[in-house]
Amino acid sequence: MVGKLSVLGFLGIAITLTACSQTVQQPAPPNQPVKDTPQAGGILNLVSLSDPPTLDIHQAGTQATTLVVQPAMQPLVRYDPLSDPNSPKVEPNLAERWDISSDGMTYTFLLRKGVRFHNGDELTVKDVQYSFERQMNPEAGQVMQRRDLLAPIASFATIDDYTLKITMKRPYPSFLANIALGWFVILDKQWVQAGHDPAKEVNGTGPFIFKEYIRGTSVDLPKNPIYWKKGFPYLDGLKYFIIPDASTGFAACRTGQVLTCSVTPDQQKQLASTVGDKVRFEKGKTGMGANLVHFNTKVKPFDDIRVRTALVYAVDRNAAIAVLHDGQGVNQAFMPTGGPWAMSSTDLAKFPGYGPDAEKNRAEAKRLLAEAGYPTGFSVTLPWRQVTGYDAPSIFLKDQWAKIGVIGTLKSLESTLAYEALEKGNYEIMEFLVGLRLDDPDSVFGEHLICNGTRNYQKLCISELDDLFNKQTVTNDPAERKRLVTQMETLALNQLGKFSLPVPTGNATGIWNTLRDWRPGDTHSTRHFEQSWLSK
Question: Which residues pair with 106 in a beta bridge?
Fold first, then answer.
């Protein structure tokens, strides 16, 4: 199929694929000021909450990397940056078109000609194949976060310098939806093999060049003068200020020093009262960012499911919504709430800790601890990533668990050390805010819950869950796939290698109206600012 493709219904996500080489003018999204003729020039000031632990997007597990690197790098296909975040469209990027075989087993991509990396090297299929294979077969010491999303690939075949055929081991209907995520960027094979380290240097094909990074201060990305899309970008450059303190970042947004910021319901009121309609607000899809609490199931006492279950029962979820989300939140299992795969609140209430009676839940937690041999509780270290948004949930959990005799000692870790602790299993319990890449079971379970998932930090292998995962990923019938996914959620909710705290429903992105043609969308896929401009 070539041309406009409607993603097969069994994906369960509303995504449209458009394969064309022509730039299409998009309608103005909701809350966007009246569209004027784009104006060239200006530096867009933005904020990042932390330093990137690595510049290698393939190995990165945090938006601290993608925010500052993505404007310089590009995937084969991408999400339309102005489409509705709840029904994003996949469109051409470095590939100007593609063809999918009738059996869904072969994808043939035709690359754009004349695309050059920032160092002048021309993009060819060797770079694309290298970028995929690098993630599929990582070198010793490398952790490729989305390796499992490429596992269905069987082989690559080069037709010519600009045409690449990718054959699957099995039908993989969410392949395009996954590689459109901004994590699957294409590296310059020749540049890497010449000795350059993508973890420390950036050489992409994007609209901006990663020029200067001052740790703890800022990242400068000037306009790419040899960008392949003529007339773009409009901006002269981007500047990210690294501001770990939430109040300082919000103050910079309130005064217009930076033009976008994530805001709570209370902060939205403050902005509205301070600057009026100069700032607009837009909400993304609820549940795509989740506070997951990981148990290290390889260390005592968390190798005992009774202990893990007790700690889940001890968390008052209504209190969590009130304290952490200004009263605007909702419970979630693992699939994003409100999406086609999510469990209903009625079904969730049947699982440990989700019932509404906090006192009853706490009594059950104490009973389970006593049964496990800890009638008076125990002590535990509670590390948290030293980034805005991570401290409050950890403090809340410390307070909740103290009520059943589990005494936690908080310990802040710099981002690199926090990721290292999770990946190497050097922790007992850790709360970690994660961005779910895609509202699809292949992505969520494939990363977080199957035995060899790259983010199975809990090191818990549930073989029955893996069997269900393998069945659902090739199931065409949406109802049957949903049934299998519900069984997967049930296993994960009962085995409790990790659990999710309630997710906010009131948070939004505040955007100054001087920034035009930009929507927050998926933070890992659409923050390249190619089409954005500043109103003078």
Answer: 167
Residue 306's alpha-carbon distances to 29, 300, 317, 408, 497, in angstroms, are 49, 12, 19, 18, 12
- Contact by Cβ (8 Å): 18, 513: no
Residue pair 296/458 in contact by the 8 Å Cβ criterion: yes
Token pair listed for 389: 């948004």
- Each residue of 71-109: pLDDT tens digit? 999 999 999 998 877 677 899 999 999 999 999 999 999
Cβ contact 212:206 at 8 Å: no
Give the burial string for 191-220 (b: 16+ CB within 10 Å, else e): bbeeebebbeebbbbbbbbbeebeeeebbb
Does the pTM surpass 0.90? The reply is: no
Instruction: Give the single-character DSSP code of 72.
Output: G
Considering only the top CATH level, what class is 289-504? alpha beta
Q: Cα separation of 108 and 151, whole Å?
A: 18
**Alpha-carbon distance 216 to 414, whole Å?**
12
Question: Strands 498-500, 289-295: parallel, antiparallel or unpaired by DSSP?
Answer: antiparallel
Farthest CA pair distance, the chain: 70
Report the distance separating Cα 178 and Cα 442, nearest Å.
9
- Cβ neighbourhood burial of 518 (10 Å; 0-12, 13-18, 19+): buried
Q: Angle between the 246-254 and 265-275 helix axes, to the nearest 10 degrees?
A: 30
- Of 534, 473, 511, 464, nearest in space to 492 by CA: 464
Return the number of other C-beta atoms located less than 10 Å from residue 143's C-beta: 17
- The continuous run of DSSP H or E covering 111 comes out as strand 106-111
Q: Specify whether domain 4-21+39-243+509-534 bears CATH 3.40.640.10.
A: no
**pLDDT value of position 35:** 56
Residue ranges covered by each domain of the chain = 4-21+39-243+509-534, 289-504
Instruction: Specify whether the CB–CB gap between 73 and 185 falls below 8 A.
Output: yes
